[in-house]
Amino acid sequence: MASQPVKKVVLAYSGGLDTSVILRWVRDRYGCEVVAFCADVGQGEETAGLEAKALSTGASRLYLVDLREEFAREFVFPMLRANAVYEGYYLLGTSIARPAIARKQVEIARAVGADALAHGATGKGNDQVRFELAFARLAPELAVIAPWRHPDWPFKGRAEMLAYARAKGIPVCAGPDAPPYSTDRNLVHISYEGGTLEDPWQPPDDNMFRLTTAPEKAPDEPEIVEVAYERGNPVSINGAARSPAALVEEANRIAGRHGVGRVDLVENRFVGIKSRGVYESPGVTLLWHAHRAVEQLTLDRELAHLRDMLTSRYAEMVYNGQWFSPEREALQALIDQAQANVEGVARLKLFKGGLWIVGRKSSRSLYDRRLASFEEAGGYQPSDADGFIRLNALRLRALAALERTGKDDPA
């Protein structure tokens, strides 16, 4: 927390209630200039009108930076190469966006001569850790202002912040049209948390979802999709080459109209709290399955098993904000080397919320049809298995002998 005088702050700004109130509060509390920064990581129309809103709230300037391609290429794709999923369900949409945003925030802070960084993450969540671990690695010399943890922060909840916004003339979305939950959107997903979703027994409202059609309302005919990969990265869908961000967007459109990619999860936050989150991740769900299909042909068995042993640890690193840590960087190097031969095409079928792999091919395939065939030997000698089985059975025979001796012992 900044204790020394602060002259200029760069605030990660979304235009929502929290960061709007924080912008004015930081300016008034520190008597400093506040530069607002918003990263466009694929939140669509949410960036409309932000400059006027930020300036009217008290910012000296707004930097609205299109990070979609950088985000997809340098953050989302490396994560997809690792097949990272947190606690079996969460495809890490919010988690992976934070280091991309933090990196650009640091760049802007240095460009404008700021001496502090600020964010709107709450004191109960993961994002405070993600932002501040990134700041620690990238800009340890800059002070960090985390208003939700500040001893002078006067607000306990939404009602008090709305009252403050009204008193200060800060434009915010409130009233009956405001959603009863918080959302976060980017290329990878939309997340929904809080409000009516805090009861884990209650299902989410079907009208809440924005990226995916309800499976029961999805098309009555399945769709076949082909995704091509090079060095573990998706490069085309249905034969059409696209940039990283455009490819994720197209995957979102295709999978979303078939209701693919909805997740309802009670997850373990890094700070130790269980939290219920609902996620829409149609595109990366499609790309995750397609990637695994190509790997089935192209990854050596032991290399695949080693990588899979490390995947959950990698996912934890992303979730816990350790993107810029030496352990994540070292693990990424191993994963990327393993992806050198992951090249080929996966064919998938989408239907009513379901997704199935129905084909895969690769010029770098390790699959030998003759060797795998039940109709011909293909160079394989079945008698070779005799010694292989005997050697693997040695320890089991020894264990059986010991157990039998114990049963025969009269004592």
What does this structure look like?
The chain is α/β, with parallel strands linked by helices and 411 residues long. The chain has two domains: 8-68 and 97-178, HUPs (Rossmann fold, 3-Layer(aba) Sandwich); 183-361, Argininosuccinate synthetase, chain A, domain 2 (Alpha-Beta Complex), CATH 3.90.1260. It is 41% helix and 19% strand. The protein has helices at residues 17-30, 50-57, 68-81, 93-112, 127-138, 158-168, 244-256, 282-298, 301-319, 326-338, 369-372, 384-408, and strands at residues 8-12, 33-40, 61-66, 116-118, 143-145, 182-185, 190-193, 223-230, 233-237, 240-241, 262-268, 274-280, 344-351, 354-361. A five-stranded parallel sheet has the order 3-2-1-4-5, with helices on both faces. Strands 10-9-8-13-14 form a five-stranded antiparallel sheet, with helices on one face. It has a four-stranded antiparallel sheet with strand order 6-7-12-11, with no helix packed on it. Helix 3 crosses helix 4 (93-112) and helix 9 (301-319) runs antiparallel to helix 10 (326-338). It is elongated. The model has no long low-confidence stretch (mean pLDDT 94).
